[in-house]
Write a structure and sequence with these properties.
The protein is of the alpha+beta class. Helices cover 54% and strands 18% of the residues.
Length: 200
């Protein structure tokens, strides 16, 4: 005959309850403390990772610096020899460029002088024509009154700038100086013709 299960059921409080409910913390306070501790632990872990990464990066950079310092020390002799070779090459290249500048003139000097004489005003005299580094410098005198001297020189500069043969060779034509000479109504001038800039 089966037994009645209720015969073995125990009462809800089958042992003594010694908890003092008045001194136990509230559940909300326990949750707040747990969250604070969890956040503090996560922050500490993140700081630990950051410090570790910084130490690793510093160690890696220091290793790379040591590596390249060793490479520089190893190849210092080859680098110094290369510098000497490069210096000698630059000196020789400068000599070749100087020789080229002396030999090569982009125009025929006689034709240039004839063209200058063709466009020269009546009371203007050219004493010297110099050529260096592609720039032509003309110096001479102008027999005009003070009122007319700058006007005549300016008109002649515009004539040179508009001349087809001259402007094909020189892109910048200017008169940097116009000074009174010791004689009355005589001015010394200087005209500079710089080569045109050729874009590749």
């Amino acid at each position: 005959m089966p037994r009645n299960p209720t015969e073995f059921d125990l009462e809800p409080n089958w042992h003594s309850d010694f908890r003092d409910l008045t001194t136990l913390p509230e559940d909300r306070m326990v949750r707040v403390r747990f969250l604070i501790n969890a956040c503090a632990g996560a922050l500490a872990f993140i700081l630990f990772l950051l410090v570790g990464w910084q130490l690793f990066t510093r160690h890696s950079v220091a290793g790379q610096l040591r590596f390249w310092d060793e490479k520089i020390t190893t190849h210092r002799r080859e680098y110094d020899e290369l510098q000497f070779i490069l210096r000698d090459y630059m000196i020789e290249a400068g000599k070749i460029q100087d020789a080229y500048d002396l030999i090569y003139i982009p125009f025929v000097p006689s034709e240039f002088v004839l063209n200058i004489s063709r466009t020269l005003p009546d009371r203007m005299t050219v004493d010297t024509i110099g050529y260096a580094n592609g720039t032509v410098t003309m110096r001479g005198s102008l027999a005009e009154s003070p009122e007319q001297a700058s006007r005549v020189l300016g008109h002649y500069i515009e004539t040179l700038r508009n001349d087809a043969q001259v402007k094909s060779l020189f892109g910048d034509i200017s008169a940097p100086s116009l000074d009174r000479a010791r004689q009355d109504n005589l001015f010394n001038f200087e005209i500079v013709l710089k080569p045109a800039v050729r874009h590749p």
